[in-house]
Amino acid sequence: MKKNTFAKVLLLSSALLLAATPAYAASGRPVSNTITASFKVNPVAPSFMLKWVDNDNRELETLPLQTVTSGESKDVTVRATVSQNYSDISMVFTITRTDGTAITEGDVELNEYVENELGTPRTGYLDDEGRLVIRSKYYRTISSPGKDFFYNLKFNTTGEYQISVVAVNEPA
User: Fold this and answer.
1) Alpha-carbon gap, residue 152 to 76, rounded angstroms
2) Among 17, 42, 76, 83, which residue carries the largest CB count within 10 Å?
3) Mean predicted confidence (pLDDT) in 45-73
């Protein structure tokens, strides 16, 4: 008989404990209002940004005037910052004379550093507008977040020059 009484007491105390717990804990019923939020997730817009890098490692849209003696070279760095991986890229250097003199194919040579060694100098060709165009070597892949490209420009003729660079996708 004592066992039945003990069992009854145990069941009664369990029932009291369950009754004393908050309603939301036992039933899983909400006790507050529901809030919602909507999101539209757009893909990252692909970007490929070039900047000149000065001797202090600052990125610049335009390099200040560089002074070089005829026949000497000037090292320049171009930094590509990319939002995704790009393949089949070359850098196209477009060079004009700003001193009123027509440019020739031999006025400027472009040389690239590959593993800290200068490669073979590249001259270029004159386009329909009389600008000297020199293409860098072909880059199979440029991986995010980017890469620094190191070039050496040799100015063979005295004068004033302006150089612009653009990255171009050129599938093999």
Assistant:
1) 6
2) 76
3) 92
Q: What pLDDT was estimated at residue 63?
A: 92
Quote the CA–CA distance of 122 and 72 in Å, as a whole number: 15
Q: How many residues does the chain have?
A: 172
Q: What are phi and psi of 157, to 5 degrees?
A: -130, 135
Over residues 26-49, mean pLDDT: 85
Average pLDDT for the chain: 86
What pLDDT is attached to residue 11? 54
Termini Cα distance of the chain: 94
pTM over 0.70: yes
Contacts (Cβ under 8 Å, ≥6 apart) of 76: 52, 63, 150, 151, 152, 153
| Cα 161 to Cα 158: distance, rounded to the nearest angstrom | 9
Instruction: Extract the tokens encoding 117.
Output: 């060694």
d(CA 158, CA 54): 23
| Pair 154, 109: CB distance under 8 Å | yes
d(CA 110, CA 94): 11
Alpha carbon of residue 25 to chain centroid: 50
Residue 24 confidence (pLDDT) above 50: no
